């Protein structure tokens, strides 16, 4: 699916989904903004959308998931815009181009129970759309784990609250 999105959008360096995540068995889907450094054409090697990446956002997600008992094999991660965006937030056009990919992803996740929208772009991009997610799937929103926002105490609390709620919903 990532290779096809890369071909269709002309972005050959899209990050793959972390193979240590739950794949089609995932019960929780983290939704972030868009590939950024992971899709940089000047970066060598295959990149992954992963809790193990070498950035602040991934580190906060890793720590919070671990401390809340959210096992990675129960999760998958995705971006509200699965290809690089122009500017700091996805445009309406970019979000509209993303819709078929979200619908396809949701169809691949029959055990989905919780969607965690991390950051305003993910929340706003999801707003008013369900992408085929069944009504009994819980939607949780919180601040992004990325810097610089995560260093703001209110944002950190929003992020942590979303992760705690996601863990509660998985039990």
Percentage of residues in DSSP E strands: 5-15%
Structural class: alpha/beta
Mean pLDDT: 92
Major sheet: order of its strands?
A: 4-2-5-6
Major beta sheet summary: 4 strands, parallel
N-C termini distance: 30 Å
Secondary-structure element order, as H and E?
HEEEHEHEHEH
Helical proportion, percent range: 25-40%
- Total beta strand runs: 6
What is the subunit arrangement here?
single chain
Shape: globular
Number of helices: 5
Radius of gyration from the CA trace?
15 Å
Low-confidence stretches: none
What does the model show?
- By secondary structure, the protein is an alpha/beta fold.
- 36% of the residues lie in helices and 14% in strands.
- The chain contains five helices and six strands.
- The strands form two sheets. Strands 4-2-5-6 form a four-stranded parallel β-sheet. Strands 1-3 form a two-stranded parallel sheet.
- The radius of gyration is 15 Å and the shape is globular.
- It starts with a helix and ends with a helix.
Summarize the structure.
This protein is an alpha/beta fold. Helix content is 36%, strand content 14%. It is globular, with a radius of gyration of 15 Å.
């Amino acid at each position: 699916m990532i290779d096809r999105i890369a071909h269709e959008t002309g972005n050959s360096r899209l990050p793959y989904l972390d193979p240590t995540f739950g794949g089609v068995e995932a019960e929780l889907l983290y939704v972030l903004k868009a590939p950024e450094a992971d899709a940089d054409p000047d970066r060598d090697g295959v990149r992954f959308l992963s809790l193990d990446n070498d950035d602040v956002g991934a580190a906060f997600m890793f720590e919070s998931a671990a401390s809340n008992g959210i096992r990675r094999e129960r999760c998958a991660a995705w971006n509200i815009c699965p290809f690089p965006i122009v500017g700091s937030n996805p445009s309406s056009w970019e979000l509209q181009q993303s819709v078929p990919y979200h619908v396809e992803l949701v169809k691949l996740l029959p055990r989905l129970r919780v969607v965690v929208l991390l950051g305003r772009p993910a929340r706003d991009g999801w707003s008013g759309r369900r992408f085929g997610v069944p009504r009994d799937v819980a939607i949780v929103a919180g601040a992004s784990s990325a810097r610089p926002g995560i260093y703001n105490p209110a944002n950190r609390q929003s992020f942590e609250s979303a992760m705690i709620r996601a863990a509660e919903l998985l039990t």
